[in-house]
Amino acid sequence: MAMSTIKILLGEREIGNHSIEKDTVLLGRAPEVDICIPNLAVSRRHGRIFKKNGRWFYEDLCSTNGTYLGVSKITLCQLSSGTELVIGKCKLIFFEAAIDQESSKSPYSINIKKILEEDEDNKKTKGQIDETIRFDKTSVIKIQPKQNGNGEKKIKPIAYIECSDTKEKIDISEEITFIGKDPECKIRINGFLIGSRHAKIIFNGENITLISLKGFPAVSVNGIKITEKSLKNDDYIDIGSYRFRIRFY
Global pTM? Predict the structure, then answer.
């Protein structure tokens, strides 16, 4: 099966060519990331490439030297075949698998409320961006959010949950996501008292709701025991010894 790839150049010399084998890959200088770029101008966790609704995106993770698309410094952009990004002293060229190209032709708008990650090198405070940004392979254009028939802003959100210990990110944009020790649960947690389906997350495209399905260990949000709770970005969920953080933007 054909896969999308990233070619990495240092000057005119190719130093890497990587297949993208999963929906989220981390790039940086740290040896434990998915695509390691051994260049001192590249942060340890510089950025990530991820797939959403059939489209590929790149997100800068608050890196020290930033990510550039052409001459524009960017935080988030949609990728298409031939997109060139510059991180540190390296050029990244994205090549999209033919099976993905049709779904990535139309533009995609995202409202970015927060830069989601902190770079390990400089521990920056997360910034906020209020405007919606439309990206293509050559420029960054600031635009207003699209509106629905009632004149209200309509933005398609992205939602995932992050494990505080492992930093693993799990997409929760499906209608229902179960948490528990059952192998079929998307978010697997273990423990003697953990239920097969201990809790569930409901996402209706605009709001996220957490529902406890078992009384003990308690399900807590921001330190408060809940049975049902509407969630927002940066909320913490505690179940037994597990802690998760909601990312919703």
Answer: 0.43
Task: Give the architecture-level CATH label for domain 159-248.
Answer: Sandwich (2.60)
How many CB atoms are located within 10 Å of the residue 242 CB? 19
Q: How far apart are CA 169 and CA 59, in angstroms?
A: 14
Total Cβ atoms within 10 A of residue 229 = 19
| Residue 119: pLDDT band with limits 50, 70, 90 | very low
Spatial distance between the Cα atoms of 59 and 45, rounded to a whole number of angstroms = 11
Helix-, strand-, coil-residue percentages of the chain, each rounded to 5: 5, 45, 55
- Which class is 5-95 in CATH? mainly beta
User: Residues 168-227: pLDDT tens digits?
Assistant: 888 887 888 999 999 889 898 988 889 999 999 998 877 899 999 988 889 999 999 999
Other beta carbons less than 10 A from residue 140's beta carbon: 17
Average pLDDT, the chain: 77
Which residues of the chain does CATH 2.60.200.20 include?
A: 5-95, 159-248
CA proximity to 218, closest of 201, 202, 186, 241: 241
How far, CA to CA in Å, does 20 sit from each of 23, 42, 97, 208, 221?
A: 8, 19, 10, 29, 35
Q: Dump pLDDT digits (tens) for 231-240.
A: 988 899 999 8
Q: What percent of the chain has pLDDT over 90?
A: 36
Burial letters 171-199, b for 16+ CB under 10 A, else e? bbbeeebbbbeeeebbbebeeeebbeebb
Structure token digits, residue 17: 């060519």
